[in-house]
Amino acid sequence: MGTDKAIDKLDTIVIGWGKGGKTLAGVLARAGEKVAIVEQSAQMYGGTCINIGCVPTKTLIHDAEQVGGGEPDPQRFERAVQRRDDLTAMLRAKNYSMLNDLESTLVITGHASFIDPKTIVVRTEQEELELSAERIIINTGAQPAIPKIEGAQITGRVHDSTSIQHAPLPASLIVVGGGYVGVEFASMFGQFGSKVTVLDRGQRALSKEDADVAAEVQSCLEDANVTILSHAQVNEISQDDSSATVSFEVDGERQQLSAEAVLVALGRTPATDGLNLQAAGVQTGERGEIVVDEFLATNVEGIYALGDVRGGQQFTYVSLDDHRVLANHLLGDGTRSIRDREAVPYTIFCTPPLSRVGLSEDQARAEGRDIKIAVKKAAAVAAMPRPKIVGDPRGIIKFVVDAHSDQILGAALMHVDSQEVINLVAMAIRVKMTATQLKDQIFTHPSSTEAINEVLGELR
Ligand SMILES: Cc1cc2nc3c(=O)[nH]c(=O)nc-3n(C[C@H](O)[C@H](O)[C@H](O)COP(=O)(O)OP(=O)(O)OC[C@H]3O[C@@H](n4cnc5c(N)ncnc54)[C@H](O)[C@@H]3O)c2cc1C
Ligand SMILES: NC(=O)c1ccc[n+]([C@@H]2O[C@H](COP(=O)([O-])OP(=O)(O)OC[C@H]3O[C@@H](n4cnc5c(N)ncnc54)[C@H](O)[C@@H]3O)[C@@H](O)[C@H]2O)c1
């Protein structure tokens, strides 16, 4: 698929098919603009989320949860991989036609780089194309960070989050990095039967979470065949025909572990290499991120950036909201800004999922706030039969509330369906609902949401 339409003069070029950029391309085209979207790989129409990020990983996690541990079953894993591939192929094709079917949108498959502030060159499989437009929007996402660890190059038994999705089910796996990617893959492979060890340099697992919440996650990971080693500073990775070995230090003591495969998950770096931003004069920051103002404008007139490439929180829904800010700035009344976001929640899809919004107890205390806490293990919530019905009553539910105003400051929900319930809590925070008002809402039954009635009754 390449350039099958001729559009004489472009108004906007979008570089990279990320969530925000593709949505904005559609909005601008429907508003009458002539738009080109440039994506470097036909396997990436639709961007990271649907091809190598959220959707494929959550599909595998869902299927792993149906297995729930035991001996590795490669055939079952292969069936899950096939289901994932079918789903991502369907979404990729749909994404392609969503833009390509628009009369005034040109889809170009090739790698883009700047020649000057209004012009890019696109290297397709067949040719080099020069494209110019008054407005250029950069939405090239992020890529796995390459750590300064000897032997950490992605080859053979050493993987990043993309390559491991195409590797056979390992009997044993070492995950370097206990962040989102590390925890999700550890939990997933553990439930498919791999013996998993996570090495993280943090003081304890999930060190950004309160100790009681992190302990619950760690306990559920242990149920899933996963061991977490904290304070682990990885120095070297080596591999041969049969295994890979990771050398690391814990409190100055040198240790080694071997496994069939290693996953390196040490963050994602804004994808600005190869864009030749100097030719356009676009300013970047310390991590290579494109520097933008609150309306997503770069320092160069007519050039904007959105999504992971501009630094900030790396979530699909943040990239999507970036598109709302930019659309409002370009076509609307200009009142939206990335600074007006409040209570942005997140979910780490371990099993059961951990979802968070706002302040943790530790953060609230560090800010010197006078707070009340409500906390209960999910299994102890009498009026929440849903997790028991679906067979996983594990987890913890915690609310942090201002002792004087009764405003909800934050929540940590770790239980079945928490990825849904957290959105309701986030909205309650945004509309400034008090904890008492939220506690007394009517919720459906049997649902996971109704735990809120009981847990918020425990505030003290
Ligand atoms: C394994 C994994 C799981 C994740 N799970 C979640 C999750 O559950 N929930 C969540 O919200 N977020 C998740 N994320 C993060 C989320 O995927 C990203 O934050 C989001 O996809 C970023 O979107 P974006 O709009 O910045 O661009 P992307 O979707 O990253 O798109 C950028 C596109 O630009 C293309 N490109 C790059 N350079 C060029 C160039 N020079 N020329 C042409 N094209 C180029 C790339 O090929 C890519 O398709 C996950 C990420 C990973 C890696
Ligand atoms: N469910 C989701 O929303 C989801 C899922 C996956 C990824 N993501 C996004 O992708 C981004 C990247 O995820 P990630 O997990 O790669 O990065 P991350 O920043 O979340 O985690 C990296 C981890 O590696 C550890 N670390 C760093 N250097 C180390 C070293 N040398 N030795 C040992 N440990 C080290 C850090 O302490 C940290 O815990 C996330 O920030 C997130 O925004 C989101």
From TrEMBL:
What PANTHER family does its record include? Answer: MERCURIC REDUCTASE (PTHR43014), PYRIDINE NUCLEOTIDE-DISULFIDE OXIDOREDUCTASE RCLA-RELATED (PTHR43014:SF4)
Cite the Gene3D superfamilies for this sequence: 3.30.390.30, FAD/NAD(P)-binding domain
Q: What residues form the catalytic site here? A: 445
Organism phylogeny: Bacteria, Bacillati, Actinomycetota, Actinomycetes, Micrococcales
Q: What is this protein called?
A: FAD-dependent oxidoreductase
Q: Which cofactor does it need?
A: FAD
Q: How is the cofactor bound?
A: Binds 1 FAD per subunit.
Q: Which residues form the Pyridine nucleotide-disulphide oxidoreductase dimerisation domain?
A: 344-454
Q: Which residues bind NAD(+)?
A: 177-184, 267
A matching Pfam family: Pyr_redox_2
The record's keywords, sorted A to Z, are: Disulfide bond, FAD, Flavoprotein, NAD, NADP, Nucleotide-binding, Oxidoreductase, Redox-active center
